[in-house]
Amino acid sequence: MNREIRFPSIRIIGAEGEQLGIMSPEEGRAIAEERGLDLVEVAPDARPPVCKIMDYGKFKYEISKRTKPQKTAKLKTIKLRPKTDGHDIETKFNLARKFLAEGDRVKFVMRLRGREAAYVDRWCLSLSKALELLSDAGAVSLVPQKEGRAVVAQVDPK
What is the pTM of this model? Predict the structure, then answer.
């Protein structure tokens, strides 16, 4: 960058990507200083080396933004029981709403024990009615259905 370039001649590229030609590093620095920018070496292995006139601080910021890891959507599981009380369901659905707002998918698992498994249709219906409460925060991607000794449903964020 700027005074650290040690080649007798370099290819200069302007701030908008236009070719300015092959010249000495001093001439390139003069052009960059005239525009209030920096002369940055972008391809030192090329012959002649390629330098670009740019704002180095902005360049470093853009590189750091590119290398930042992207957040992936996770699958959060919320466990319910057929006998779960109204307030507890409300609390769990508020938690689900928070997960959906953060961009995570939410899976609801209603475990069935003993004779509860005989009334699967009733539990599927009650879970689907409860999922309507989340229609503002997400879309049901997996409708309530029996899976082993449980009723399972999934909601994806909007």
Answer: 0.56
